[in-house]
Amino acid sequence: QSLPQQKLLTWLSVLECVEVFAEMGTARVWGEMGRWTIIVLIQLAKAIFRLLLLLWYKAGIQTSPPIVPLNREQQQPLHPQDMEDDSSGKDQTYVGRRSSRVVRSLQSTPSLQSRHWGSPQQREESQSRRAEEMNKPPTPLGLQETIAESIYVTRPLLHLLSLGVWGQRSWKPWLLSAVLDISSLSLLSDLKDLNRRERAELRRRTILLLYYLLRSPFYDRYSEGRILLLLRLLADYVPGVGFVTRKWALLLYPYFCWVEKNQGSWA
């Protein structure tokens, strides 16, 4: 990746980390008008950055978060002592005479910080696969896939625009957002030979469609009563579940109330 592309990804990650805090802080200081202003500005900046990555830098399907968090356990390098042992040519494994089982020899036991439970061959193969997967370039997108990704990138802005035109209680913003999400996923479904990161991103977007069941006005008219009824039935008829469901009800009710009042964060 070039340096400007890395900077765009960094700024996108920063915006995604601070957008909720910025929204809540602005609402506390400048009220409702300030909250919606900061929501529009953040979503506009994110859309511009993502469109630049998509159209100018050909970044392909973009993940959320833009920069994948580093798994330090998987990326743990070999200890210098272990590298010296490898370079000295010592046998790392021992094959049992009767069982023919391959085990690590005592001479090649790594330090506690870099110790693992697999054989050295398995570790080398897994590290090589991870390195190959991380270094694999993004899948090139055709015209159809570029349009689908552009729809997904601009959907928050269209959702905010529809909220301003029809209001938060209207079904039209809910339907518009759902249609855009489903259209983007259906257009991207024909794309083949995706890497693991891109497949995980498409699975994440598909699972996020379930959140539409918790968004107003669908939640107010359909989901709320059924969710509370299910929790009540579990609490009354399933032994030992009542304590858990009552705790969940106490936790979820304020969350649903917050979601109902803060539709901007769902953009």
TrEMBL record:
Its main location: membrane. GO terms for cellular component: peroxisomal membrane. Residues 74-140 are annotated as: Disordered. Pfam families: Pex16. It comes from the Eukaryota. It is found in: Peroxisome membrane. Belongs to the peroxin-16 family. The keyword Transport does not apply. Residues 122-135 have a biased composition (Basic and acidic residues). This is Peroxisomal membrane protein PEX16. Keywords: Peroxisome, Peroxisome biogenesis. Residues 106-116 have a biased composition (Polar residues). GO terms for biological process: peroxisome organization.
